[in-house]
Specification:
Strand content: 15-25%
Order of helices and strands: EHHHEEEHEHEHEHEHEHEHHEEEEEEEE
Radius of gyration: 21 Å
Largest sheet: 8 strands, parallel
Number of helices: 11
Bound molecules: alpha-D-galactopyranose
Shape: globular
Length: 350
């Protein structure tokens, strides 16, 4: 869990924006809710020095001091690079400087590296070689650094990500702050659940919650779906300017507990009728978290049959967004779900 600069700041990220994200992560209550990584995405990179070591550009006058600042808040800091000559935004990449870059990150105190594949092609073997090279370089540099991989389609990174030391990997193209883009990504994750688990996660991209392009029901759907998917929760908004509703969405403890459940199981679809989808995530304590999703334009009553989620007879149902026990239900549970919205419940004995 954390924050990344790209979705909101893109090329405008600088030292000040990262410090204020760290400050706000603490003051908003996000840190207490479990968010920890403050990640600088692309466009921080400057020129290499005479020996080939990477330097930050003028937006980041002192990366070590910035890392120290983030650490002083009890948080961790992430950075971005690519295994090519240029990053996706055309800045200096790590090609042929992997060991030097890993050492620089370790020296600065970096805790997380998003290592992005920016070429439009590449064979599986080329990707495996490039990612392994950086993984080995990080190991050699001696500082524990989370490795986030970014190839998302043609070589099925989820099938081999753990074997190259990846802790998470993108499974999709870039998200945008629109319901249809978010829904297309989120609902298409079905089937990838067998590739996720503790320490190695599918990453359907960073959150858009709070960026303004979706309504409240749509953002609630975004958070609920990402929680059911056990997806990395990397906020992508301006943390220094959040409405109370955005804070409430990002810090709902019961929803975060779904995402962060120790069993680490990624949820999946249990039924679909056109725009109505029922998804389920099995939790470590035996309860089931169920999302009733309505992808159409009008409110609709949706139902989950307990037989679809492996529960027989009666069970307790609790609404996780409302923090409310709804009572005991037998054989099925139904609820009215607003357009583009969700009802997220936890079902089972406690
Ligand atoms: C790619 C990634 C994005 C972002 C940009 C930066 O598009 O998928 O998440 O990191 O590169 O250039």
């Amino acid at each position: 869990m954390g924050w990344n600069s790209w979705n909101h700041f893109a090329g405008r990220v600088d030292d000040k924006a990262v410090r204020s994200a760290a400050d706000a992560m603490v003051s908003s209550g996000m840190k207490d809710a479990g968010y920890v990584y403050v990640n600088i995405d692309d466009t921080w990179e400057g020129q290499r020095d005479d020996q080939g070591f990477i330097q930050a550009n003028e937006k980041f006058p002192d990366m070590k001091a910035l890392a120290d600042y983030v650490h002083s808040k009890g948080l961790k800091i992430g950075i971005y690079s690519s295994p090519s000559a240029e990053t996706c935004a055309g800045y200096e990449g790590s090609l042929d400087h992997e060991q030097q870059d890993a050492e620089t990150y370790a020296k600065w105190g970096i805790d997380y590296l998003k290592y992005d594949w920016c070429r439009p092609t590449g064979t599986r073997d080329e990707m495996i070689a490039a990612y392994t090279k950086m993984h080995d370089a990080l190991q050699k540099a001696g500082r524990p650094i989370v490795l986030s991989l970014c190839e998302y389609g043609w070589n099925k990174v989820w099938e081999w990500g753990p074997s190259v030391g990846g802790n998470l990997w993108r499974t999709t193209g870039d998200i945008t702050d629109r319901y249809f883009a978010m829904a297309e990504i989120g609902f298409n994750q079905n089937g990838l659940e067998k590739f996720a688990g503790p320490g190695h996660w599918n990453d359907p991209d960073m959150l858009e919650v709070g960026n303004g392009g979706m309504n409240e029901d749509e953002y609630r759907t975004h958070m609920s779906l990402w929680a059911i998917l056990a997806a990395p929760l990397i906020a992508g908004n301006d943390l220094s300017r959040m409405t109370p509703y955005t804070i409430q969405l990002l810090t709902n403890r019961e929803v975060i507990a779904v995402d962060q459940d120790p069993a680490g199981k990624q949820g999946y679809r249990v039924s679909q009728e056109g725009p109505f989808e029922v998804w389920m995530k099995p939790m470590a304590d035996g309860t089931r978290v169920v999302g009733l999703f309505n992808r159409q334009r009008n409110t609709e009553e949706l139902t989950v049959n307990f037989s679809q989620i492996g529960i027989s007879g009666a069970a307790k149902v609790r609404d996780l967004w409302l923090h409310k026990d709804l009572g005991n239900f037998r054989d099925k549970f139904s609820a009215f779900v607003p357009s583009h919205g969700v009802v997220l419940v936890r079902i089972g004995s406690e």
